[in-house]
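# nightly structure sweep
# worker-07 picked up a monomer target from the shared queue
# config: single-sequence mode, recycle default, output format = structure tokens
# input follows
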Amino acid sequence: MSGGVDSSVTAALLKDAGYQVVGAMMRFWPDDKRDATFDTCCSPDAAYEARRVAEQVGVPFYLLDYREQFQRHIVGPFLEEYAHGRTPNPCVNCNTKVKFDELVKKAKMLGCQYVATGHYVKRVENERGEVEFHRGDDPRKDQTYFLWGTPRAALPYILFPVGELEKPRVREIAEERGLLTARKPESQNICFVPGKVQDYVAEHLPQAQGSIREIGTGEVVGEHLGTQFYTLGQKKGLGLYQSHRVRHVVHLDPATNTVWVGDYEDCLWTGLKAEGANYLLDLAALPREVEVQVRYRTKPVRATVLHADEHGFELKFEEPQFAVAPGQSAVLYAGPRLLGGGLIADHARALPALPPAYVGQTAVRSR
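# output follows
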């Protein structure tokens, strides 16, 4: 229970269905919680609201301490990825490493048969009795994208009671039951980041002056204070010498502290390689033709699987895709069924040679 309306209704629906329900919230916020962090979900106030909802529903409630795991699995890797020129998705990591791994193990230790969450995902049993994850019935809220890393062994122990509902209906149920979270707004930000991600990254990673170079020629066209402040496809705020030229970030190279820019066409990917793969079916059953989603809010596109093993996979898109960002998730589908996914690896392309004496400059400021 996060203190939001979705998990509140989840608890109520399970209780109505005759389950013996135990409400639990994972504590992530540290003792020295900063202002504007963990304020809309998984906060002290949210824990109070979750406890109140549990009382309304008539189930016990426990606050579980996962601060150390959250720091190790989520916050640390988040900063490490930016330091390596990649764009991470901490929500995927949280579901993969904490909620549907450590929490499922804890629930089984305590004798619980299932872990249920308020994700908009459908749990489907196929003709062989195997559990599959499918897209939720509300296309605007479907959250399968964030669950590709769920350990396959955990699938039978997870329930999604709101997966077949649309969001307005969930709020109606909460209103009908008088749940205090019925009108609570949704959380949109990264829970541990106060304000802008760039400001958070600047506070934790040293700034280092480097060059912005043209991908076609190697020409220096600007300067920057760290590759961690850029993402693929970005065209605003580049501070180029010739500001009238429209340029996109094409490649980030922390090793030489270089930001490479180019035309829109230079940002088009014909395919991708992914690492750290996780599959929710037997690898031998992975279709050769799949749909892949490379961002949460984008439509899936058709792709051909060129290679796949337990470590990763390689895809060729049916049509080139813009700014496929390393560090983000490539999530595989067959229709509504979630097949698995992996982390997008950097693309290999020929870069203009840097001058022999070129060395990335040292850090100039660290907050």
